[in-house]
Amino acid sequence: MRPIVCATRGGEASHRTQERAIALARERNAELTFLCIVDASFAGPLNERLAAALDDELRRLGRSLLHIAEARAQEQGVLVQTVCMSGPVRKNIQAYLHQVDASALVIGQSRPNVMNQALGLGDADDFAETLRQATSVEIVVVT
Predict the structure, then answer these.
(1) Cβ proximity of 134 and 119 under 8 Å
(2) Is residue 21 part of a domain?
(3) Are the C-beta atoms of 42 and 115 separated by less than 8 Å?
(4) Cβ-proximal residues to 109 (8 Å cutoff; 6+ apart), any chain
(5) Which residue of 17, 21, 24, 94 is most buried, as measured by CB atoms within 10 A?
(6) What is the residue range of 96's domain?
């Protein structure tokens, strides 16, 4: 069975998204990957040293959030792995889906905010439609 990928970044909305991804993986007896992509570009132009330090801190936070999600899935008997990446969120999600030949992507529809705009996330439904057109992956948007 092809894996299910859940793009996550923490918070209450991500908890609901993670729970939906766990349920889907259980229903389909599929492996689940929690994917966290950090993008330090929201901080604006930084010198190389500061950019590397910020990226390192964001990755550390991302890995901590993934560890919590992983524990939730394991408690429910789901085979799970975690991946933390850096760079543009949309581009990396699409590339990762191709890389692992995912069957489904579970994403959350969070309220519009400054951080979503800074990261170029925009609306999850628009992103889902773009991915549907670019891949053969089922997209599940959790509200």
Answers:
(1) no
(2) yes
(3) yes
(4) 13, 123, 124, 125, 141, 142, 143
(5) 21
(6) 12-142
In a domain, 62, yes or no: yes
101 torsion bin: left (phi>0), alpha (psi -120 to 50), beta (else) = left
Q: Which residues are bridge partners to 104 per DSSP?
A: 4, 138
- Sorted by sequence, the CB contacts under 8 Å of residue 53 that are 6+ apart come out as none
Quote the number of domains for the chain: 1
CATH number at residue 20: 3.40.50.620
* Whole-prediction pTM: 0.89
Q: What is the pLDDT of residues 31-78, one digit of tens each?
A: 999 999 999 998 999 999 999 999 999 999 999 999 999 999 999 999
Assess if residue 6 is contained within a domain. no
Q: What distance in Å separates the CA atoms of residue 129 and residue 112, rounded to the nearest whole number?
A: 17
